[in-house]
Amino acid sequence: MTRQPPEPRLPTRPAGLPHPKYVTPRGVSPLVAVREAGLQYPNYTPFTLPNLTETPFVDRGLQGDPALPHLREAATAVIHLTPAIGTEIVGLQLTALTAAQKDELARLVAERGVVFFRDQAMDVHEQIAFAAYYGDLHIHQMAGIIPDLPWVHPIHKDETAVHGRSHQIWHSDVSYELQPPGLTLLKMDTLPHAGPDGALAGGDTIWASGYALYEGLSPKLRAFLETLEARHSGLEQAEKARRTNGCLRRDPIETVHPVVRTHPVTGWKTLYVNENFTKEIVGLEKRVGDGLLDTLFRTVAEGYEFQVRWKWTPNAVAIWDNRATFHTGIFDYFPHLRHGLRVAPQAERPHLDPDSVTRKESIAAAQQGQHGKQGEAAAP
């Protein structure tokens, strides 16, 4: 008798979800299942959630072995795609990872910014359970959802996305929240046939390293930025919801975060402003603050040596650290369909540790320490 795998353990569903009789079947893309049930997809049926409050968070990456022995022994290959950002792991199924491997994966994502896997046999229920290992799952204030799985943000554009290019902006997700997401997992299951003669092409995603962008700035500018805070706002997003689908689940929020934050696993400083949600530098004259933000936004967009561009294949997965990267999808496939599912565990409230260092400083110190140990070993 074949033993069936255990059902994925999902978080407790919030009360008052719309369409309470709908259930997404296992192993079926909600892109198909929700529509077959006669419901809107992505679903914008209004329901109300309590406002988010700050909750304790401990990053799983802190438990991961920096040498990644469990991941490396199981993988066929570990391929670093650029010097600054992006690693592909070959030969692993995310659903089969042990707790030790998951912790090492969190550490690797913290260091490399984004880690990629291809050909993942993971349905949406397994994706939710996997992401929930890393923290409380975020439910978006206004984006479309799967009716019974509100933690999932469908990434969906088709022939109706006539204004899709307006979303092609460098950002980190929902940075206006008190505790914005940390690790974020996106699986693409439907890719556009936008190439010549209907070839599978289009819809790549680009990520940029906040660590590398920050350490590329001049020391004087870095020192100044570390004294600053910025206002991140979800008000425009909320107003868009009111104008269009009328779906706003929580009170809109604005939050002040440091312009430079420290990652709790690496201890590295990273730039933390983004064009989508950062509206002003607190305490600076508006024209000065706006000029500074514009400079930083252009630095993100034009720092090509700190970017990695990922060409999706069906059932590929990207796991990135929303605290230390920026990303943008390339909208070059209209009017073709592109669909994926994103799940995002919340992390800690952004903060700057005054004793933290840049990535390069940390690596240099580690190398110096290694040289010192070698010298001690060679001494008579």
From TrEMBL:
Transmembrane regions: none
Extract the GO molecular function terms from the UniProt entry.
Answer: 2-oxoglutarate-dependent dioxygenase activity; metal ion binding
Biased composition annotated in UniProt, kind: Low complexity? 364-380
Region Disordered: start and end of each range? 1-22, 348-380
Q: Out of the domains of life, which is the source? A: Eukaryota
What cofactor(s) does the depicted protein rely on? Answer: Fe(2+)
Alphabetized InterPro entries for the sequence: AtsK-like, TauD-like_sf, TauD/TfdA-like
Alphabetized PANTHER family for the sequence: ALPHA-KETOGLUTARATE-DEPENDENT SULFONATE DIOXYGENASE, FAMILY TAURINE DIOXYGENASE, PUTATIVE-RELATED
> What is the protein named?
TfdA family taurine dioxygenase
Biological classification of the source: Eukaryota, Fungi, Dikarya, Ascomycota, Pezizomycotina
